[in-house]
Write a structure and sequence with these properties.
It contains seven helices and no strands. It is an all-alpha fold and 180 residues long. It has one domain (3-164): TTHA0068-like (Hyaluronidase domain-like), CATH 1.10.3450.10. Helix 4 (67-78) runs antiparallel to helix 5 (86-105) and helix 5 packs antiparallel against helix 6 (109-127). The chain is globular, with a radius of gyration of 15 Å.
């Protein structure tokens, strides 16, 4: 399956009928999520990210504001990542971002800011000494989303960049970024 085909399949899948908000909505649209979970790959790796429909669908959910649903899908993808791998750290980072966005939509600003900080911490671990994207996401994009979340911006997004995707995690960066 090509990168475009995986993305097309994820974009063609039905979105949940509503975004679940814990403590507010009566439940979640289990049917839509179950269909996607059946498409999980055997393992989560950057090399297969362009074909990883649950990963790509989770990204779509996140960008469309279905934070609880994206968290549910990405948690399943995360469980299939090699422990302590760049992919595991990246998935922890986006799961923290997703959870932070959910807390923000619930008016829990302190939790939102704490989760944004955790997202940055996991992002740093995913990109430590490497500049290639992980799972098709660039470090700068994740950090910008975390800063937007921390600042209270309601619309946070993540964008794919499969051209610079790390297949093996062995592309060392000579220009590491320092942040306060």
């Amino acid at each position: 399956m090509t990168a475009d085909l995986g993305k097309q399949r994820a974009e063609a899948m039905e979105l949940p009928r509503f975004a679940h908000l814990p403590g507010v909505s009566l439940g979640h649209d289990e049917r839509a999520l179950d269909r996607v979970k059946r498409l999980l790959l055997e393992k989560t790796e950057s090399a297969s990210a362009p074909q990883n429909i649950p990963w790509l669908y989770g990204l779509r959910l996140f960008n469309e504001g279905f934070f609880w649903e994206a968290h549910e899908i990405w948690e399943e993808v995360w469980l299939l990542a090699r422990p302590k791998s760049r992919e595991e750290h990246l998935l922890r980072s986006v799961i923290h971002l997703t959870n932070g966005a959910l807390k923000g939509s619930m008016g829990r600003d302190k939790a939102k800011k704490r989760l944004a900080a955790l997202a940055i911490e996991q992002c740093d671990a995913a990109y430590l000494q490497w500049n290639a994207s992980v799972m098709g996401l660039d470090q700068d994009d994740i950090l910008a989303a975390a800063e937007d979340l921390r600042a209270g911006n309601r619309k946070i997004r993540l964008s794919l960049n499969m051209q610079n995707n790390s297949n093996s995690g062995h592309t060392q960066s000579n220009n590491l970024k320092n942040r306060p």
